[in-house]
Predict the structure.
Amino acid sequence: MDTATPPGSARLTFRDATDADAPALVALIESAYRGDSSRAGWTTEADLLEGQRTDEDGVRAVIDAPAGRLLAVERDGGLIACCQLEHRGDAAYFGMFAVRPDAQGGGLGKVIIAEAERTARESWGVAEMHMTVISAREDLIAWYERRGYRRTGQFTPFPYGDERFGIPQRDDLAFELLVKNIEAL
């Protein structure tokens, strides 16, 4: 499926990721959140977490999940972003959202999240989109709030000690549930 992008941008292509995409998706996700390369964008978690954010097994698990899909977003034939959608009853879960650091800040994220909401609503008839965000990421939470998401005050502890999700650099990390009604969009 194609959708329009912000003025001056090439068209985007949204497609379901395949197992063959896993290495490129891991590289994209890592570049957006970890290490020095992530500092080129504004979504970096480098000051909060070191180590990996995901691996090929984790990405393949999302790709192969029967109740979900991992959308690969391409521009001019190159992978530029991705996001996970998972059907969870009356809601869809939005996760694993990554935009290449050098493409951040120009409106691409708004286009991708709108397409993800449309896809979830049309594919599964869900009324809400849910996501979890590290509560210390106030700038990111504010960005989602501008997109219509609301904070719930419901927190899940960060999985300290499980290095598959990174090595925490502070001891106060938790995930907060954000919710948006997407029924009437």
Observations:
- The chain has four helices and ten strands.
- The longest helix spans residues 108-124.
- Strands lie at 2-3, 12-16, 49-50, 68-75, 78-88, 91-99, 128-134, 150-157, 167-168, 174-181.
